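Weekly puzzle thread! Below is a chain. First person to post its structure in token form gets bragging rights.
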Amino acid sequence: MQESRFYAYISRMKHIFRWSLMKNSQEESLSVHTLDTAVIAHCLGLLRNRRFGGSCDAQRLVMLAIYHDCSEILTGDMPTPIKYYNPEIKEAYKKVEVIANQKLLAMLPPDLRADYEPLFIHEGEDPELLKLLKAADKISALIKCVEEENSGNREFSKAKISILQSIEEMHLPEADTFIREFLPSYGLTIDELN
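Winning reply:
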């Protein structure tokens, strides 16, 4: 067997830092963001099933979350104001993400590629799962803003408002429930949590 570098690349997520245009009181690695997104996605899937009559595959949702930003290992984190500046840049960046994901998949041994391909390429994926994934991703970003504000960093105040509005515009009861029931505790100190 030929040596595979796929997992070594995946482990580099801890070296990719998000929010590069912002002053951070604590840097957030892609690994941290990914874990947070996966935990939130799992919760959103469970909320859909338990409270909103859905039949979401919450474990599949977690797997999608784990690999949702892997392309950034090769591309770096593109700041949102640049990524979404205009439709041409947004579309070009999507193409770059596809190429990066294909490059990562090509690093896998052939007998494992088919297992990972649906986690990197979402064609044919349940659109409801992808909506929940997007909401989890945004909620993770919102939590980062809350944490930064709690540490006295006003740099994230405008981003917090914008992200919260974008979540509300998704009209997902699971996301609204998470924000109502779970987000307030992110503002507590460790002593207050105890």
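Puzzle host: Confirmed. Bonus trivia for everyone else. The chain is about 65% helix and 0% strand.
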